[in-house]
Structures are given as structure tokens and as C-alpha cells.
Amino acid sequence: MSEILLNYTRGGKVESLHRGDIAVVDVKGNLVDHVGNPDLLMFWRSAAKPFQVLPFVARGGINQFQIRSEELALMVSSHSGEQEHVDLVRKALEKVGLTEAALACGTAKPMNSKAAKAIMMQNQKYQAVHNACSGKHTGMLALAKMLGVPVEGYTDPDHPVQKLMHQAVAEAAGLKSEQVEIGIDGCGVPVFYLPLKNMAYAYSRLAKPEEGNWGERTKAVVTIRDAMLAHPSVVAGTGRIDTALMRLTKGRILAKIGAEAVYCLAAVNEGIGITFKIEDGSYRAINPTVIGILKRLDLITADEHEELLRMFPPILKNHRGDIIGTIETLL
After folding, report:
1. Which residue, 51, 251, 235, is CA-closest to 243?
2. How does pLDDT run across 241-297, given as a tens digit for each residue?
3. Cα separations (Å) of 128 from 109, 229, 274?
4. Known Pfam families for this protein (predicted)?
5. Rg of the chain on CA atoms, in Å
6. Concatenated DSSP letters for 70-127?
7. What is the rounded distance in angstroms from the CA atom of residue 120 to the CA atom of residue 34?
């Protein structure tokens, strides 16, 4: 059963709370810590992206299309739609011989408010390249081109691209494809339903690929991990904790958000994977939960903890800027 992770207070009284579940797994597959139910079945959402791109990397797509490290980071990103991200999407599509017209992720408002405002001020419309998942879709299109299969219908569960990704995601989590059910994600492609502890196991293997029993795919997993850590601003964006955390820890911690408040972390030196799910899907609960977990597991220094609290303060303010409450982390 989910446990209370956060209390939101006003005037010293608890006004709201968030429940959640946490699984912490080492590279050998051992459950080393948990809160709530680590066996909770949940859709992995965008936190599965590092493993969805694995077939493309393992089959030689980087060399075939001359994909740069930051373009690979884009393919696993939930980017903020900033100009850097949009330019990378267009450049990567150009390399595989396509344009943004091939993207079937749907149009979306950029996650970054300044980027969204700039588009509005220019009397332009939001486009598919602004969608946080356009990088993932670029990777899917690139895989289709590499396989020599039609790009039309690449989002369908029965398309060769999606079948390969389904298999790769399941195997990364230590499961078989038939053990991982699918739904449809916000961007129109299959999304995967599996236990939190298996998601965490996949991230532990991403943290230390050399010890993760990847076999011939080890080099590809190292390449994906290192691209994410080298380009944190691509993986997420300005003001977001994924980017801030990877920068602050100088690559010791890898971080990746998923929709509906699913979140994954990888402690590179320790070979530990962490997954949590906020029960009500609230994004506001993510930052304090991330910080609380890292402190609980002693994966950040006192100075890093202090800096994270400065960047993402656990306080509530009213419209005048007065501090009127706190966020209490119960970890």
C-alpha cells in the first residue's frame, strides 16, 4: 500500500498530502530499500526512453547516420521545447532523410514557459517539434529507416519498430515481452506496464552497464548513459530537476522523469536504480521526493543537498511572495 511521502502545510497544519511508492534495486537485482509497494504495477511512461532507443544504438544507428552525442541524448529526452531542443530535432531528422512532417507525436505546447511565450509573441503555432517526446519519435523514425521498413504507421504496436522496443524495454527490466503489457502514451506510441522494482532494476543496469549482464549490448548501454550524463540540458531543460541534478553531481546521478509522476534515478558509482510513483500523479511532488530519496540513501553530499533545497525550496508562497507554508518530506 502506498505511504505518505509529503505533507503540505499551511499555518503549521497539514493541508494536503501525497502518497507514493518507492523501489531501490542494485545491479544484481536485489531490492535494497523500499517505501510502500515495490511490486506496484505501473506504466513506465517517458522514464522508459533510455531503453526504447537501445535497438537503434545496438544495431549501429549512431555510425550509420552520424548521430552526435547530444542528438542521442535528445532521443531519450523529455525536452522542454527550447530552441536548443527544436534545432536538435530538426538536425537529427535531416540526418535520417526526413523532416518534422514525419513526426506523429502530435503538436504540444513547450514545457518551458519562456519558449511557449516566444512562440505566441511571434504569432506562431505550436508544432510537433515542440512536443517533449519529439526526440523519442525521431529515434523511432531513425530506427525505421535503418531497418528499411515504412515510416508510415511507426507508432502502431504491431510495427517492427515498436515490437523491437517492446522487447528491449522488457529485457532491460529483467522480464519477457509477454510479461509487459502495453497501453498508449500521450504521444501515441506504446507505453509499458510493469512493477516499479523492475524499472529500478533496469536503471541499476544503466548505472553500471559493465556489471549489468547486458552481453553484446553493453557498449550500447554505456553510450546511452554517457550521452545523457554529458548533455543534461538536452535530457530535460532549464529549471528542471533532471538537468540540475545531473549537473550538480557531475554525472554521479542520472535522472529521468516520466508522466503521471513516475520518476527514475541511477546512482552510477553504486550501481543502484531507483523508481518512485506519486499516487495521484502530481508533478509538484516530484522535486521534494527526489531530494528526500537521495538524502535518505546518502547519495548526495551535504553541500549538494543544501544546493538542491536552494534551487527547489520546500516552501509555499502566496501571490504576494509571502512564505505561508512548508513541504515536509517524510523519508
Report:
1. 235
2. 999 999 999 999 999 999 999 999 999 999 999 999 999 999 999 999 999 999 999
3. 9, 25, 31
4. Asparaginase_II
5. 19
6. HHHHHHT------HHHHHHHHHHHHHTT--GGG--S-----SSHHHHHHHHHTT----
7. 44
Burial label, 178 (beta-carbon count in 10 A; 0-12, 13-18, 19+): exposed
Hey, is 45 helix, strand or coil?
helix
Q: Domain of residue 71: give its range.
A: 3-329
- Contacts (Cβ under 8 Å, ≥6 apart) of 159: 144, 149, 153
State how many domains the chain has. Answer: 1
Helix (H) or strand (E) holding 307: helix 302-311
Mean pLDDT of all residues in 135-158: 98
Phi and psi (nearest 5°) for 186? -65, -25
Read off the C-alpha cell for 294: 537521495
